[in-house]
Amino acid sequence: MNNRPKPDDRRDNVEKIQQDITNTIINYRETKDLINKVDNEKERNDLIEKNQRREQSIKGKREEIRDEALARKNGYK
């Protein structure tokens, strides 16, 4: 049996990362709307913290897109 890993195929990484960003932004906005409707202080704080983590995630993913786009432009060398 041959259990070699698949070769790294990065051709669609930019698109996958962009979809992740889009989904995270949607979740961020939905949570932001929910924060104003929640009466429970702990739950509200948990939602605020979750959105703060989402902001950091979006920032990191945007940096990753720049890196991947540059790698694509340079032929993944």
Task: Give a verbal description of the structure.
With 77 residues, the protein is mainly alpha-helical. It has one domain (13-73). The chain contains 2 helices and no strands. It has helices at 13-35, 41-73. Helix 1 (13-35) packs antiparallel against helix 2. The protein is elongated and about 55 Å long. The two termini are 31 Å apart.
Low-confidence regions? none
SSE string: HH
Question: Approximately what portion of the residues adopt beta-strand conformation?
Answer: under 5%
Number of domains in the coordinates? 1
C-alpha end-to-end distance: 31 Å
List its traits.
77 residues; mainly alpha; 2 helices; elongated
Reconstruct the topology from this structure.
Blueprint: H1 13-35, H2 41-73
Quick gist of this model?
This protein is an all-alpha fold. It has two helices and no strands.
